[in-house]
Every structure is written in structure tokens, then in C-alpha cells.
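Translate structure to sequence.
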């Protein structure tokens, strides 16, 4: 716990406001794309519009060009567009969205040296009731995490509540991919899981004012187990083919709670 805490960068009020400015761009992108999501639109069209908006704001897309240890090529797009059974890291493509689909859009922006990162999952047309419930529960899990964050708690206390919210609704919490610290870099310490078990004790951390975290529940309608979905080793999909939802905010810990930096304020 001490080793992790020592590597966490505490942000000044000025730095938090710079992150909020980046978060406003993320909010603008996600809000604009929400209005575009409908049957017949391609995920490539969503990415092209995101690129325009980020450039117009003077920002840089965080995801474009990122490498991971498994993928053959850098991530080729500005946003991740993950459809149906894709959990995260879906690559925008000529894929046409159809009635009843869901699509998670994850957007990260660097502006004046600081980062914002958020995600929403949108229904395409009118979703089935079970799918709508998946989206509602995932968004509620994120809202719960934000409400529960306050100095002096350990993250495990929040994570347990997030997992309980999801699992008592009959859904699964993805374990292989988690949230993260964020600031001048997209990924900073600490790791911010949406569940807790005894194996994580050494990585648990106490919430302190000035911490900035990307909190992002990833929830599955079936088994929480995931795998890489294609030869690029970018899209992450559910092993059982069940659908998944993803909601995320960048959050600053304050003296008395949490301040969401990607809500457009």
C-alpha cells in the first residue's frame, strides 16, 4: 500500500482546473456523438467527428497512436467504439450500427499538458428492456462510486460497493481491465479496480485530496471473463458473447468528497 501511495501524484488546484478544461472537451465530444448515434451510422463516422471536435478545441486525442504489449499496431483512432459484446478498445470502422445495438464511446483528450478521460454507452434506437437495464445499472455503479469517494476511505471500500451494486443486479464486473490515475499522463498510479478481493491488499490506497482518478465500471450481462476479439489484439470482448456496458468519469478527490471533471462544468 505504501509503495503505491508513494507513486500517486497529488494535483494542485491549478492542475485540477487544467484537467477540468480537458474534461470539457471530452464532454463536448461525447455529447455531440450522442446525437449522432442512430441506425445507419458507422463507428468510423463517430471517430471522424470526434477528431474534428478535438482538433478545433486545440486538444490532442489521447488514444491515437497508443501501443500495448499485445497489439501488433498502435491504436489507430481518436476514440474507442465498442459495440455489443465488445467491452473496451473497439476500433472505429465502416461497421454500421443497427437498431437495438449498443455502442460504448471512450474519449480521452490532452489539452495544455493535462488529460481528461470519460466514456458513455449509448443505445442505438430502442434497446430491449434487458439491455436498457444493463446500461442503467452500469451508469448507477459509476454514480455510486462518485458519491462514495471521500478522503480517509480506502479505495477497496468504494470498490466493494460498486461490485455489490452490479452483482446484486445479476451482472458481471470485468476484472482484467480497471480504472487508473490520470493527470499529465493518461495512465498514472494507482490502478482503480471496480471490485475487491484479498489479492489486491498490497495495491489498495487511501483516498486523499488532490488525487485524480479515472473511474470506469465495465459491466457484462453474462460472465465477466473477457478475451481479445480479433487479430489486432485491441478490441476486448466477453468470452461468452454477452453484451457489455462502460461508463467513466475523471474525478478529483476533494476535502469533502469528489469533483467530477468530465461533466461539462
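Result:
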Amino acid at each position: 500500500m505504501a509503495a503505491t501511495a508513494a507513486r500517486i501524484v497529488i494535483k494542485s488546484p491549478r492542475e485540477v482546473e487544467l484537467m477540468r478544461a480537458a474534461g470539457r472537451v471530452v464532454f463536448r465530444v461525447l455529447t455531440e456523438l450522442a446525437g449522432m448515434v442512430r441506425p445507419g451510422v458507422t463507428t468510423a463516422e463517430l471517430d471522424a467527428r470526434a477528431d474534428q471536435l478535438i482538433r478545433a478545441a486545440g486538444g490532442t486525442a489521447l488514444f491515437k497512436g497508443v501501443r500495448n504489449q499485445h497489439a501488433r499496431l498502435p491504436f489507430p483512432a481518436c476514440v474507442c467504439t465498442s459495440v455489443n459484446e465488445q467491452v473496451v478498445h473497439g476500433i472505429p470502422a465502416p461497421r454500421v450500427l443497427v437498431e437495438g445495438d449498443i455502442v460504448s464511446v471512450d474519449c480521452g483528450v490532452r489539452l495544455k499538458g493535462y488529460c481528461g478521460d470519460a466514456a458513455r454507452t449509448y443505445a442505438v434506437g430502442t434497446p430491449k428492456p434487458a439491455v436498457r437495464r444493463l446500461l442503467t445499472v452500469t451508469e448507477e455503479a459509476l454514480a455510486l462510486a462518485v458519491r462514495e469517494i471521500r478522503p480517509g476511505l480506502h479505495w477497496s471500500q468504494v470498490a466493494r460497493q460498486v461490485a455489490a451494486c452490479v452483482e446484486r443486479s445479476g451482472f458481471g464486473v470485468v476484472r482484467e481491465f480497471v480504472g487508473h490515475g490520470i493527470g499529465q499522463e493518461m495512465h498514472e498510479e494507482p490502478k482503480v479496480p471496480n471490485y475487491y478481493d484479498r489479492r489486491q491488499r498490497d495495491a489498495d490506497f487511501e483516498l486523499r485530496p488532490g488525487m485524480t482518478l479515472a473511474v470506469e465500471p465495465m459491466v457484462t450481462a453474462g460472465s465477466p471473463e473477457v478475451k481479445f476479439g480479433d487479430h489486432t489484439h485491441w478490441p476486448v470482448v466477453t468470452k461468452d458473447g454477452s453484451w457489455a456496458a462502460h461508463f467513466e468519469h475523471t474525478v478529483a478527490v476533494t476535502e469533502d468528497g469528489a469533483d467530477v471533471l468530465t461533466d461539462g462544468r
